[in-house]
Amino acid sequence: xxxxxEITENDRFDCVVVNxxxxxxxxxxxxxxxxSRGRVYFGKVPADFDVEIDDVLYIGAxxxxxxxxxxxxxxxxxDENDNKLDWTLIY
Length: 91
Hints:
Helix content is about 0%, strand content about 50%. By secondary structure, it is an all-beta fold. The protein has one domain (about 10-90). The protein has a 6-stranded antiparallel sheet with strand order 3-2-1-4-5-6, with no helix packed on it.
């Protein structure tokens, strides 16, 4: 049976918003992790969430599959108040 892995606040790290695309229903938000300069795009951030370039948001990742250091991951985007804004898969 698969074990559910929860992402705790201590497992998250801060990222900088580098792009925001505003549409009627959602915002597309690209964040960058400062040390690795890796970027992740989240396409369904609620339209009413106030976010601008250079804001700090937080991400947490949960590995999928048996090998924890390889393969796909679920990546979640959070605000400073620990509200989950969106999620995406990284392959």
